[in-house]
Amino acid sequence: MTKACLLALAISAGICVSASAQTADEIIAKNLAARGGIEKLRTIRSMVMTDSVSTPDGRGTPLRVYLLRPSQLREELSMGQGRSIKAYDGRSGWIQNPGPRGASARSLTGGDLDELRDDAENAIDGVLADYATKGSRVELAGTQTVEDRPCYKLKVTLHTGHTQYQYIDTRTYLEVRQDILGTMDGKPSAIEQTLGDYRSEGGVMFAHTIVSVMRGRPERSTMTIQRIEINPPIDDRMFSMPRR
User: What's the whole-number average pLDDT of the chain?
Assistant: First the structure.
């Protein structure tokens, strides 16, 4: 065996030992430190994100997301002359789409509601921060190369029963990819999201580019975060379902 092969084996063995020597909680602690620290994250009480979502046909669609602790979320997606709105008020979720007779809101149930609740509860911090307090479980599922970078693979089981896999860069300890398993239109779904272009906002690192693809389909969309406002005033009434 050549010296080059021996060296490669030694490096590979070193990576394996390093991966096995760390627990899921130790990896999470380093991830939170890389993002700016758990205490800094907890100072964020509200956020507003101004995004652009590019679809497979090349169009860019404006998206505005409002977040308010502990678990309120509102997404406004511009659609021609109207807006599609999806929101969770901390207890129930609803959606409102434009139509020929005006916009009408309806309640969300089942898997669609669970997914919206997952988003609302984890939108500011991510699924790893305070995961036990949220009722989730995390386990180390080995290592995997993602985007040519060795990553720790963490399996996260949320309290809703949905599963996510978080891929943490072994060098930067930032998330490189997340696989989100759930339901869409009542059917099982798997969405792969690649995260990049990390920037500091209010002392916390946030990915500013998220590329999403539905597993088994070639189409993909890219969300580009253009602006993040930290702790702006938000009226919590905007999360409530409109009355008819």
Answer: 88
